[in-house]
Amino acid sequence: MSAEHELPVDRALAALGELLHDRCATSAAVCQDHAIDVSRHAPAAPDGVVFPQTEDEVVEIARICSEHQVPMIPYGTATGVEGGVIASHGGISIDLTRMNQVLRISRPDADATVQAGVTRKQLNQVLQQEETGLYFPVDPGADASLGGMAATSASGSAAVRYGTMRDNVLGLRAVLADGSLVRTGSRARKSSAGYDLTRLLVGSEGTLAIITELTLRLYPVPAAMSAAICQFPSIASAVETAIELLGTGIPVARMELLDETLIDAVNQYSGLQYDRSPTLCFEFHGTPAHVTEQAEQAEQIAARHGGCGFQWATDAGQREQLWQARYDAYYACLALRENAVAYVTDVCVPISALADCISDTQRALESVAVPAPLFGHVGDGNFHVVLIVDPDSQEELATAQELNRWLIERALAAGGTCTGEHGIGLGKQSSLVDEFGPAVEMMQRIKRALDPHNLMNPGKVLQLSAPETTP
Asked: Is the pTM of this model over 0.70?
């Protein structure tokens, strides 16, 4: 093809090849590897994949893509469930996994600065190896990259005590659509300086900027930890226990709910032998005396609601074994049907509305023919239904979509949100409008101001026109 007839993406790839050499890939195999996350959404491959190793390279990549008006899709570990890394408009997938250096750790300040490709487990391993006595507690389950976790404002089972990524990113560095590099936030624990751009970019799902570096809040490793599993006669009694426990002011570190369908699934998947009953998993952090006291109080509260069969563990290996059911939940769900996909819902409601919302959801699930385990981080009102559907069945997909719409409407009516931790991605853009109404127009104005050609992860979060390209 002559130079004058080259497509913009071809010209961009040629420039990127000169910049990165063998770290710019266009093979079908590499592009297909970057075409999907773990969601139900259909794959869409990028036109090319680049593997920057430095922030300066990300700046140059963005400048080249901006010059040729080619879409950019930030890519981490692809463990998201809302299609956030799918190249729905083509373009360049920017794989940040080689930017994986822990740059700085401060014990006195209890913070660390990392490149975006560092995973949460990697950071905690470094903190342990250097005997800092600190750790990073945000745990979405998967060993996700910290840049990706920030992009989706991930949280997980420990959010009830330690908060989400929005609470734990002190500052960051990011590259805008035109290649500009910005720094937001600081290492200070509070600031009144200007707009809170850190929180704007955390949760923006790569639609406003490419996060390259993060400064994170760390926490002392607790002197003692105690975990427990307790089973209940009904899911209502388990939720009532969770609500009462929170109301006492006991500082629960983790509290997870698994319904009987999920317990059955993890028994089969992980070779466990729990009774097929609704189950709560707890974890408490603190001094040995405080942890013992908290555990005893939790057991007493659970007993009042019919909880039985408490299994307590303080040893790290024993705690891991008790939590195995929750860690295996997603893949245990998938194993319920061969060649199936998981349609994952993700609502969050005020704690006072949790019991009614989960009870209503259980009743709604009675008419659903596909497996649909329910579980969640009930300590902060976030729960999920995972519908296991045949990807070739339009009827099953329609059933899942209908249930998801109903669940979101129920959560919004209770003063909740359409997504507690997974993000909007490809699948919940209309729900964002239902939740915020005219405020979505404000989000669109911000998007257009920072990314006027809609090049940053187009097709995600907001309903906008396709990227503008030049011939």
From this structure: yes
3 state SS for the chain:
CCHHHCCHHHHHHHHHHHHHHHHEECCHHHHHHCCCCCCCCCCCCCCEEECCCCHHHHHHHHHHHHHHCCCEEEECCCCCCCCCCCCCCCCEEEECCCCCCEEEEECCCCEEEEECCCEHHHHHHHHHHCCCCEECCCCCCCCCEHHHHHHHCCCCCCHHHHCCHHHHEEEEEEECCCCCEEEEECCCCCCCCCCCHHHHHCCCCCCCCEEEEEEEECEECCCEEEEEEEECCCHHHHHHHHHHHHHCCCCEEEEEEECHHHHHHHHHHHCCCCCCCCEEEEEEEECHHHHHHHHHHHHHHHHHCCCEEEEEECCHHHHHHHHHHHHCHHHHHHCCCCCCEEEECCEECCHHHHHHHHHHHHHHHCCCCCCCCEEEEHHHCEEEEEEEECCCCHHHHHHHHHHHHHHHHHHHHCCCECCCCCCCCCCCHHHHHHHHCCHHHHHHHHHHHHCCCCCECCCCCCCCCCCCCCC
Assess whether pLDDT exceeds 70 at residue 346. Answer: yes
Looking at every residue in the chain, the average pLDDT score rounds to 94
Pairwise CA distance, residues 326 & 256, whole Å: 8
- Please write the tens of the pLDDT for every residue from 58-69: 999 999 999 999
Work out the number of other CB atoms within 10 angstroms of the CB of residue 436. Answer: 14
Residue 183 near residue 191, CB atoms below 8 Å: no
Residues with Cβ within 8 Å of 425's Cβ and at least 6 positions away in sequence, in order, are: 39, 41, 80, 82, 83, 84, 205, 460, 461
Higher pLDDT, 296 or 406: 406
Residue 78: pLDDT above 70?
A: yes
User: 407-432: string of b/e by CB count within 10 Å (b at 16+)?
Assistant: bbebbbebebbbbbbbbbbbbbbebb
Give mean pLDDT, residues 391-415.
Answer: 96
Cα 364 from Cα 360, distance rounded (Å):
6
Residue 471's pLDDT is 47
Residue 194 contacts by C-beta under 8 Å, 6 or more apart in sequence?
none
Q: How many Å apart are CA 236 and CA 221, to the nearest integer?
A: 34
For 122-137, what is each residue's pLDDT tens digit?
A: 999 999 999 999 999 9
Q: Which domains, ranges and CATH numbers included, belong to the chain?
A: 3-95 (3.30.43.10), 102-220 (3.30.465.10), 222-336 (3.30.70.2190)
Residue whose C-alpha is closest to residue 341's, from 395, 387, 373: 387
Place of tokens 């990028």: 46
